[in-house]
């Protein structure tokens, strides 16, 4: 089946007369479990939950590898760092990756004695730092700069030197890009963003083809207590069925917006991997099915960026992305990314593109 069909059925149990299509969330801290605990599927809520299992099955079907769900994207990131890296190991990380991933690496991991090697996503610059590394961390497209690296090439080069590879796949989701098929050992994502798309929950997951590697991640979740709530997991599974619909509309809108912005004199630079003239396009077109909902662009100053956002009528000013409502922010209001004061991270939603373009046009006109 095609992805748009698969996503509506992923993790959904076989039809049973009189039963719901998808059973509701199971709220329990303990389950009936007399005798040998290994003979009982559920014993204690920190170990397992049937609501998790259904959503993890859905993710596994779509990722092409076994999945473990976490209460946030950063909990998923921390599980890989925590299970794989020890004092003396080397982590190769994008210098332009998601800010909090770098905070953990350069803070907690470095203090533990892990050597952190930073290199940009653009130009596959991490390739030069693989020797002696334990883990290569990739993020493509990067957040917020939307740089793209050649995942297959880097994974092959890393494996040739015995280096494991993890890819933060939050921006495109597994329908837009399949890291495990491209050779990565781990696919990691924040399900808070486009995967669930309604801006009403926080969740993350890790997927891997190697069951031995993933068993360590699952054990980390149990032992660290990094467990998700059943309500959030059920809501995520419910939302997953519309991912293909949402993503197609969002990505079509994002591309149209990128084309529009590229022709505006007020805009200094536009980045979107789907633009044929974008520096990342030649790699993105080979490894991505959708280019994601995020468009990044730069206005001349902080004042212009703030004025533009204030004058948008349909754009929510918010710090997340991937939701069905169009949102944006002046990203430099947060520290940590090497970007200009007028840099805007824009997340295309599911509104009619004619309304969005009209709104952007009138907001940009106020800058002249």
UniProtKB/TrEMBL annotation:
Task: Provide the coiled-coil residue spans.
Answer: none
A biological process (GO) of this protein is:
cysteine biosynthetic process via cystathionine
What do the Gene Ontology cellular component annotations say? Answer: cytoplasm
The chain residues annotated with the modification N6-(pyridoxal phosphate)lysine are 193
Cofactor(s) needed, names only, are: pyridoxal 5'-phosphate
**Pfam families under this entry?**
Cys_Met_Meta_PP
- Provide this UniProt record's keywords sorted from A to Z: Lyase, Pyridoxal phosphate
Matching entries from InterPro entries are given as: Cys/Met-Metab_PyrdxlP-dep_enz (IPR000277), PyrdxlP-dep_Trfase (IPR015424), PyrdxlP-dep_Trfase_major (IPR015421), PyrdxlP-dep_Trfase_small (IPR015422)
Per the UniProt entry, the Enzyme Commission number(s) are 4.4.1.1
GO MF annotations for this entry?
cystathionine gamma-lyase activity; pyridoxal phosphate binding
Keyword Lyase recorded: yes
Q: What class of enzyme is it?
A: lyase
Q: Known PANTHER family for this protein?
A: CYSTATHIONINE GAMMA-LYASE-RELATED, TRANS-SULFURATION ENZYME FAMILY MEMBER
For this chain, the family text in UniProt reads:
Belongs to the trans-sulfuration enzymes family.
Query: What is the protein's name according to its record?
Result: Cystathionine gamma-lyase
